Amino acid sequence: MKIHEYQGKQLFSASGVPVPKGIVAKTPQEAADAFTKLQGAVAVVKSQVHAGGRGKGTFKEHPEQRGVVLVKSADDARNNAERMLGSTLVTKQTGDVGQKVQTLYVEQGLDIKKELYLAVVVDREVGLPVVIFSSEGGMDIEEVAESHPEKIAREHFDPGMGLLPFQARKLAAAIGLDAAGAKAAESFLPKIAKFFVDHDCSMAEINPLVLTGENKMLALDAKVTFDDNALFRHKDFDALRDLLEEDPSEVRAQAAGLSYVKLEGNIGCLVNGAGLAMSTMDLIKLHGGEPANFLDVGGGANVEQVTEAFRILLADPNVKAVLVNIFGGIMKCDTIVTALLTAYDTVGITVPLVVRLEGTNVELARKMLAESGKKITSATDLTDAAKKVVATLGA
Q1: Catalytically active residues, by annotation
Q2: Predicted TM-score of the model (pTM)
Q3: Residue boundaries of the structural domains of the chain
Q4: Is 54 annotated as a binding residue?
Q5: Which of 85, 138, 203, 374 is most buried, by the most CB atoms less than 10 A from its CB?
């Protein structure tokens, strides 16, 4: 689950992580008023979308307008806000489709001495959270990792103990901070590490993290993503969701208890089990096709959930064929076929449909398919299914 920068900074502040002063604005006048309230000579107006690269991003309707701008007056803030609000911001991460800006964040200007990069993520190979620290703030960390890997420092920490002071000093030394910067890092880094653990984050990224002229560290950005599997422990996070920033199909699937991620291909996949779903997508690609989605109906889905899964799949105009791959365990094969036949009649399946079944009640399920009179292609195994569904598209 992603949240906006301003929401992340509100959570940072509540947890003792230093952030600049800022005010949320949803209208041009609110942006102008925010500039006045901040009482500074300059301020920064920031588009709030769930994507990085906003500073370099431009708007479809106003190609000259950047997604993050420095303003020097209330009128300047208002004029920029008029172009930004309601317009579509295109960044490296949004793709060509872009994302409509509904909210702005007006933030105080700072005397910036140095820009740094900071992130906390989970290192799944080690099984621990890791702090990633770099002297190259404001840049894409992928580019830094490729061209200057020596400028990136990493430090794993025990989630129970947190990032210890000596580890913070070690990180500061690794990226060449002076004594004043190291002291600021020793205070700041353990706080963001604690925030990461306490809030069950999958990522907490600050780019840039700034060191001011007064040698204070402040989070100039906040990109926070929560682990969906831990949201049951944080019911208050529901209020932070912005459904306008999420794919409607993914929101619909989540409401039905399904795991769905939209992709860019044209072969819809309906599978039970995350691992099997990944294997199914791999085999589709191996045989020359492109999966349109990841869709895991899980081991205990009922007829209504599977029918909804078909509705979600077929609502995607890019889907030109569907592959159903079921290994029946808890999820019985005949349940899938019942749902499939229901969807065929109620939703209207007009694209080629290939079905591979194995496991519990498979013979009954195959018999139901054979006697249905529907235009459905059966497959003997997963490789056969992948080849057949790709062949339907003339690949």
Answers
A1: 117, 205
A2: 0.77
A3: 21-108, 112-237, 248-391
A4: yes
A5: 85
